[in-house]
Amino acid sequence: MNVMLHLTDDTQLRAHGFLANGRLFAEVAWDFSIPDSRLGEGTLWGTPAMLRQLAALAVQAAIQAEEEACWQAHQATTTAAAPGSRVA
Q: What is the pTM of this model?
């Protein structure tokens, strides 16, 4: 399976659980629209355990992205400093 999902701060997210054929499922749905775009709404569903695992991986990826951005900013500051100068 290949899932490509682009979320922005404007994406509206909703979640709920439901029973189907005696099994418990969790669902995350989203709405996002850009004028003149075919982007719109979507739904992702699975067992609660799998959606928890997906959520944990998403949090891990977000933390790693923030750490990478901080590291890149620090490297840019260090590189831009003149030789022999101090960087806090």
A: 0.68
Give burial (CB, 10 Å; 0-12/13-18/19+) of 1: exposed
Q: In whole angstroms, what separates CA 83 from the centre of its chain?
A: 39
74 to 66, 68, 77, 82, 88: CA distances (angstroms): 12, 10, 5, 14, 10
Q: CA-CA distance, 52 to 31, in Å (whole number)?
A: 21
Instruction: Give tens-digit pLDDT for 65-81.
Output: 999 999 998 888 877 76
Return the DSSP state at 36.
Answer: T
Query: Residue 19 pairs with which residues in a beta bridge?
Result: 24
Q: Which residue has the tokens 């949090």?
A: 59
